[in-house]
Design goal:
heterodimer; A: about 270 residues; Ribosomal Protein S5, domain 2; six-stranded mixed beta sheet; 4 helices; about 35% strand; B: about 220 residues; alpha+beta; five-stranded mixed barrel; about 25% strand
Chain lengths: ~270, ~220
Amino acid sequence: EDLRVDGRGCEDYRCAEVETDVVSNTSGSARVKLGHTDILVGVKAEMGTPKLEKPDEGYLEFFVDCSANATPEFEGRGGEELGSELASTLYSVFSSEGTVDLKSLCINPREHCWILYVDVLLLECGGNLFDAISIAVKAALFNTRIPKVQVLEDEEGSKEIELSDDPYDCIRLNVDNVPCIVTLSKIGYRHVVDATLQEEACCLASLLISVTSKGALTSIKKVGKGSLDPESIFEMMETGKRVGKSLHVALQKILDEEESLGTSRQKVGFLG
Amino acid sequence: RYYGEVGDIVVGRITEVQQKRWKVETNSRLDSVLLLSSMNLPGGELRRRSAEDELAMRDYLQEGDLISAEVQSIFSDGALSLHTRSLKYGKLGQGVLVQVSPSLVKRQKTHFHDLPCGASVILGNNGFIWIYPTPEQKDEEAGGFTTNLEPVPLSDREVISRLRNCVVALVTQKLMLFDTSILYCYEASLPHQIKDILKPEVMEEIVLETRQRLLDLEG
């Protein structure tokens, strides 16, 4: 039967609140509240040199900070292990081609490119961290505005980079292919989406799959000390794809609605 | 944090099994103590606790079990001494625990309620609310130590989930918890789906209706 402790079905998400542009001195930011889980993401665009193996692309750098306020286990340096695990998951999710258009981040091949530093801050830990973080990252990337630059050549051949004067003249990222992570936790014989802390305590193994809005999987990861039967992995993947697609649709709707309100919308921010 | 009084009902979780007692976590500053001599043992009331009883302690209550008990006395350092010397206390079987602030639980004559909607609830003074399916027979031979592990039917589980969400809604809106308020909230939530009760708008609407009915009851 399809009934969990709080009345949800196995594929239902908790009530989520998404808000973008909450931090003023970043290029893009977002805050996501999924039940008791609270995530703040800030994206800063900085100029740098491209990587040697990909000279005509920019890249993303992820950093996850588990705030000590999130849960008592994160006191001092307790949250570092979890933070590095989350960051490496984000790297593998965004590693496949086509998730973000990296070529648009290039200014001068081999010399200048935009590097997007994505910083994730865990404000409160209430179960299902991966999903909330991926939703927040997608919203923040949607909200990111990178200023347009022009490269001028001097007579001596040295290049000068000029920032356009208009502060609203900027490039936006195309987030259609940015994937979202769906965590499927196996409890007993069934698997559930969006586990609360209590459900996570009962679950022995879970599967993280990152799904794009078209239903393509970019990465799969298994966490937990239990084992998963190959048949159930297949079932979980199908569920994940279904749930992921509807999640993307709902998220895009909210982001578009927020965008249409423009500057007149009331911001709650992250202190409220 | 919960500050205990003698005669309060509490719901707690066993954290340690020690020499002649169990340590129980009750959301207070110090862990409460349940002495072996304060426990009902099968074989009659006035049995002397022997050495075999001590060794068999783990058969009765292990770490992680939930119990309902009454506060017998308070030690000088503030730790509570619990007792389960009545058939209505003892180990709790299948059900749902909701942890709330102790100040929201109203002090009443009785804290064990059988709600007409089909489930029972124990309102612990320490803020631990236990919701469970109403047991069919009322006679307990073993003194409340056997746990019934049969699967709970879907209809009972729906009632329990709805009650749990109602309790969470009442707590979020800072309304006192007692049997009438929970019952009114349950009735007010019936038109909505169980999972919708946790949405902020629906929660406000239900609690407003409950508050109105409670005011009408008083006035």
